[in-house]
């Protein structure tokens, strides 16, 4: 059986990695007024943050139409017998449910939808792992068993640099945003029960980063093989410095750099930084 691996654009797997691992991607979209852009295909992260500054407004976001899934599944069926469709958390988007619905509408390929219960490149880790197993000839059932095992060690924490996007996007009240800005509160966010919730509120970004490093150290210090990713919202130099620091301290960790693209960047805002990981 030949199995395709599909994820959506919010995995933010750098294109060279997607190409190297034969990972297919279906895009979500951002909408500025009457202009709609497929993230990754029609709008890069850099273009998105520039447009937000130019327009002084937050876009809305939308999941892929079910028909787009159906068309993609039918195209994949020309080469593959099955597809594992890995998507951002069903608690923050209907994308996973769209894949489920589309899977019932095609009979030329067996569709295995997978709810990552998370997003960004940590979601991408599931796709990378699935791709490696598919190329090794593992069955879809074996791959899904491994992905569910991965969930036990997957973690990700995000630090928001500016609370205004969370407020403007309806994720934070105006009073909370004002108080947070005055006190320099840098909330650490994470996924819990499929949704983004505050993990801790810390006074400064430096202290928040140190707290995330401490959480990472609790796992990485065991010297088990791990994959980690530094995720940034238009802060490539800061991300590169974090990656270098982690690699020097933890030789057991394979560390990558990724980014918050348009859809997730709509809610987190420019300057956000994250760190995610799992045990290999």
Automatic annotation (TrEMBL):
InterPro entries: DegV, DegV_C, DegV_domain_contain. Keywords: Lipid-binding. PANTHER family: DEGV DOMAIN-CONTAINING PROTEIN DR_1986-RELATED (PTHR33434), FATTY ACID-BINDING PROTEIN TM_1468 (PTHR33434:SF2). This is DegV family protein with EDD domain.
């Amino acid at each position: 059986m030949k199995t395709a691996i599909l994820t959506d654009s919010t995995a933010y797997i750098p294109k060279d990695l997607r190409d190297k691992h034969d990972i297919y991607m279906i895009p979500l979209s951002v909408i500025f007024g009457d202009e709609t852009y497929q993230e990754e295909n029609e709008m890069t992260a850099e273009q998105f943050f520039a447009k937000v500054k130019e327009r002084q407004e937050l876009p809305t976001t939308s999941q892929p139409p079910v028909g787009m899934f159906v068309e993609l599944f039918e195209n994949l069926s020309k080469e593959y017998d099955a597809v594992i469709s890995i998507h951002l958390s069903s608690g923050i988007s209907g994308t996973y449910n769209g894949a489920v619905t589309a899977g019932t509408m095609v009979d030329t390929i067996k569709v295995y939808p997978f709810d990552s219960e998370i997003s960004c490149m940590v979601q991408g880790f599931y796709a990378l792992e699935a791709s490696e197993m598919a190329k090794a000839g593992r069955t879809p059932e074996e791959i899904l068993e491994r992905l569910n095992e991965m969930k036990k060690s997957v973690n990700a924490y995000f630090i928001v640099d500016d609370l205004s996007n969370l407020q403007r996007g309806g994720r934070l009240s105006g009073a909370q945003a004002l108080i947070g800005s005055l006190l320099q509160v840098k909330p650490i966010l994470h996924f819990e029960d499929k949704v983004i919730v505050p993990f801790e509120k810390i006074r400064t970004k430096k202290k928040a980063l140190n707290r995330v490093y401490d959480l990472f150290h609790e796992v990485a210090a065991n010297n088990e093989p791990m994959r980690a990713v530094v995720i940034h919202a238009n802060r490539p130099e800061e991300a590169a410095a974090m990656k270098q620091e982690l690699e020097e301290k933890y030789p057991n960790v394979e560390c990558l750099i990724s980014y918050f693209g348009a859809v997730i960047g709509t809610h987190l805002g420019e300057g956000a930084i994250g760190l995610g990981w799992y045990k290999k």
